[in-house]
What we know:
This protein has about 150 residues and is an alpha/beta fold. It has helices at about 1-10, 50-55, 70-85, 105-115, 130-145, and strands at about 20, 25, 40-45, 60, 95, 120.
Amino acid sequence: DDHIEALRALWTQDLPTHHGPFVSFENAISRPRPAQQPVPITIGGHTKAAARRAGRLGDGFFPGVADRERLADILGVMRAAAEEAGRNPDAIVVSARSDGIPGPNALDEVKAMADLGVRRIIVPPLAFDPAGMREAFGRFGDEVIARC
């Protein structure tokens, strides 16, 4: 948490000052500052602690959970932490992976993930050679992405 707060100070303040338990600086100069403001910070992890951190501080959350039941539980923890911190949980962009993608029911899986609040789905390698990748991702685009 301390490092996230320190980075945000460095990225947004002219002469940033931050005093935390692990990082401390005063009137620092950090150049160049990122052009994109704010710099989105995605919290990753499959634990409830990571979910709480994402709710408190994250712009995004990438839980390392593929099972929908566990995903729903951990997203509930993230949402509760966001609300407790006075934040809108729907503003936190959730990225996730699914064991059902690719697969014969990939479109249904994408819809189910969206119903949980997932806005980005990480697609695993569908092939490992260039020709296979073109064919597999092309088919995935036609059969799933185009229908979402």
